[in-house]
From TrEMBL:
<feature type="region of interest" description="Disordered">
    <location>
        <begin position="219"/>
        <end position="265"/>
    </location>
</feature>
<protein>
    <recommendedName>
        <fullName>DUF3945 domain-containing protein</fullName>
    </recommendedName>
</protein>
<feature type="compositionally biased region" description="Basic residues">
    <location>
        <begin position="256"/>
        <end position="265"/>
    </location>
</feature>
Amino acid sequence: MNEKNFEYLKEQVKYTGFGDALESELKEKLQKEEPNFTLTHHAKYGNDTAIATLNFKKSDQSDMYFFNSYKVELHKENSKEALEQTFYINKGNNITMKEAFNLMEGRSVNKDLTNKEGELYNSWLQIDFKQTETNGNFKLNQYHQNYGYDLEATLTKHPIKELENPKYKEDLMDSMKKGNLQSATFLKDGNEVKQYIEANPQFKTINVYDATMQRIDNRHSKEEKQSETQQTSEKQGSKKQNQTTDDDGPEVPKEAKRKRKSQSM
């Protein structure tokens, strides 16, 4: 067995989202020196079960093995048929197991990818379940950086409390780029309401869901943001008016935005 090859594959499997659990089995398979072999990984996401089959193949020219791809079977609750998709391993930033699950749930994932010329580029990925490729996979749509989807700018159109704290904002965006359905605190009429959001690069927006996972019309969120901005402007205008009628009163700062306590996501 090629020890360096084992160490490389071990790290590759780990950082593609399968952890250390397959390490001993990987070593055993490599020691047998068969032309190809597979490893199986089980994962639970809520009430859904995902089974990944990792595919390894030995080089024709050396004793090196390569981790080429993994196939995911997603068994959703209340569904008799499993959803299948194969994800290919590249030299660059591979789609992790959790990202694969998020893609198969219909959400979008942001990745730094490498083209055929070896050049790095950034793109959002989303599975198109209406189209299949010749290999049996569902088509994987890409929305490149030139497509014009700006997640940060899109989020600022909504009254989300986490955006007020740079650290929480960064964590929120990082989670959404991995394809996660992320909880967020919406400010509505002075109240904090927990909702869920996901990136929607195709339509350059975000999808918003309430606590019962019912989709909320984006127009409502925009109206809430506009309402909050209008209320803030009215309060500032009222304070300025009070200042002009009371010459002996203390000077009021131009920025009268009330500070809100930030909370961890």
